[in-house]
Amino acid sequence: MPKTVTLAPRNHGLDGPLTSLAGLLREWLPRQRWFAGKDRPVTELGVLSATELFPGCLHLLVHTGQPAVPAPGGAPPNGDCYQLLLGVGDHLTPRLARSLIGRATRGPLAGKVVYDALQDPRSATLLLERLRRPGQIGPLRFEADPAARIPGRLAPRLLAAEQSNTSLVYGDAFILKLFRRIQPGVNPDLEVPGALAAQGCGRVPAPVAWFSTTGPHGGTLGVLQPFLPGAFDGWTLALEALTAADGFTGAARELGEATADVHLALATAFPSGGAAENGHTAVAMAARLDAAAHAVPALRPFVPRLHTAFAALAGCPSGPPAQRIHGDLHLGQALRAGRDWFVIDFEGEPSRPLTERRTPQSPVRDVAGMLRSFDYAARHRRPWHPEWAAGCREAYCAGYAERAGWDPRETHALLRAHETDRAVYEVVYEARNRPDWLPVPMAAIERLAARGG
Q: Which of 176, 210, 226 represents a domain boundary (last residue)?
């Protein structure tokens, strides 16, 4: 029978599983691609729940605390909750050597080898079996679309691409996205694709199964969707075009059309009918800039001129109506299969509160995210090709305008403010996760600040 243990969110006693795992996780967690705040040590660790999914595999929700970084508006951070699947055994086979977390020296797991179970094909296969059979195991609830048919014995493989979550592909038929950083509530990456599928939007793969956790920390843990075999993400295709010195404007225009299709479907699936509140948005952007400048000193010389973008937003016309949006749109969130573009990963920016990610916003924010992505791609290949990025930006906006009925290029103050806000987010993200990439958003900060001078 499954075993479930629930401990206090901030358990300083290090009893139960945490007695065995605390030291190992404090060292292992900050090295993971999906762990936020790599620039700060883990000073607090607690187990929220521990469930034996099957023999030798432990599902954990852990609370981590780190030295405080001021949040927008001065609100104190409350720490983060992460989902872990840990394998526990007497020894580790050579093929799983890279998954090793360590050997426990104390507590109930003393002497056992602990490793990342998602890198173990056996554990990944058994996890799919749980999804194929809806039901509840301790605090974990498994659900599925009654019309979906999920065959068994599909060989799993772990995607190696850098991302803020972890994805498993099963037999080139399905992809399971496991959220690492968990917040209470329904994750938009489950809510939005399901609603768009009901609208008949073919640009987004529909969820077929998912699982979540119940209780005070209840939230979506993972979503299984159809996999698009032979598809390539827009980031890969853009870099290939740059390497071959090929144009990308045709693909960029079609991607703009696909983005508009998704926005139109979102507006129908989640009707809001309200105008964008530019004054409120400008205040929030300004607060994020001030907090970011506190965290990343390189931003500070540009703050006064960047604030002019947000001041202009506060006084500009409302622009397109507020609606549900993607929230974190860039080339890596678009897949091209054959001649068609698909949009994936509706989770939004994981660092922002779930309620904010589900709030209607200006669709210009998504457009700005994609425009920033073209700039990222252009700077990824040396020498930098600004004309390549400029051509892609124009083509993308033209394709979007043709489908949506309004042109993002005509919303100058809106677009500049949202590009600035996105670049500020990128600066903080790169400073904490990929410091070598920091010059890319900083170049955009210089350009946007000069425009406001």
A: 226
Residues 203 and 294 in one domain: no
Strand partners, 168: 158, 176
Answer yes or no: do 199 and 56 share one domain.
yes
The verdict on 191 and 88 lying in the same domain is yes
**Residue 209 is encoded by which pair of tokens?**
């199964």
The whole-number pLDDT of residue 257 equals: 98
**Between the CA of residue 68 and those of 79, 348, 433, what are the distances in Å?**
9, 23, 17
Question: For residue range 388-422, what is the model confidence (pLDDT) as tens digits?
Answer: 999 999 999 999 999 999 999 998 899 999 999 99
Beta-sheet pairing, 135-137 with 140-144: antiparallel
Q: Count how many domains the chain has.
A: 2
What range defines the domain where residue 95 resides?
4-226
The Cα 423–Cα 420 span in angstroms is: 5
Of 191, 226, 261, the residue that ends a domain is 226
Give this prediction's pTM. Answer: 0.85
Whether 171 and 102 map to the same domain: the answer is yes
- Considering the domain architecture, whether residues 309 and 210 belong to the same structural domain is answered as no
Beta strands across the sheet bearing 80-89: 4-6, 44-54, 57-65, 80-89, 113-116, 100-103
Distances (CA, A) of 58 to 45, 63, 117: 17, 16, 8
Do 312 and 341 sit in the same domain of this protein?
A: yes
Residues 242 and 101 in one domain: no
CATH code, domain carrying 269:
3.90.1200.10
Question: Could you tell me if 398 and 255 lie in one domain?
Answer: yes
Task: State pLDDT tens for residues 53-83.
Answer: 999 999 999 999 877 654 443 333 457 899 9
